[in-house]
Amino acid sequence: MMDPRSTVRFAGFRAVLALGFAVGFASLAFAQNSQYPPQNPPQTSPAPGPGSRNPEQAKARVEEQINRLHQQLGITADQEPQWNAFAAVMRANAEHMEGLYRERASRFNQMNAVESLRSYQRIVQAHAEDLARLVPAFETLYASLTPDQQRIADQVFRYQNRRRGSRTAPHG
Questions:
Q1: pTM above 0.70, yes or no
Q2: Are 153 and 73 in contact (CB under 8 A)?
Q3: Which terminus in the chain has less CB density within 10 A, N or C?
Q4: For residue range 148-159, what is the model confidence (pLDDT) as tens digits?
Q5: Domain spans, the chain
Q6: From residue 105, how far is each of 45, 46, 61, 85, 112 by CA, in Å?
């Protein structure tokens, strides 16, 4: 008899595998419906993205986000240590992602399709790893917030998901 935890892990693995196949098949279907070879091949320069910005602009944008969130939450002096730890992770994550995007942008014109996908895969994996570092810092901060501050945080994060067009946010 199989251990129930193994069954759950296997079911989760199958769900991830099925999702991967679905994404792969959707990409293939899109590619088949696209005109090939393209009549007007795309320009070889990368689209503007995080890596194509001036690093100082990127840092300024992150600082602006940090300051806005600090103000929205009304962080108190007693909450500053938790806030500072959270903000430090935000800064480190932003710097890490900016470097990956810059690296990708610098090599974009020389990458073949496989290299481009692998480069994007590294960015997505790094994003997940950065979130894994951010969540505990935010959990600690969130636990130090008053119920009113937590309500504001909940609203701010819901708004950000909707603004970004989150596929998981309810629409309507």
A1: no
A2: yes
A3: C
A4: 999 999 999 887
A5: 1-36, 49-163
A6: 9, 6, 19, 30, 13
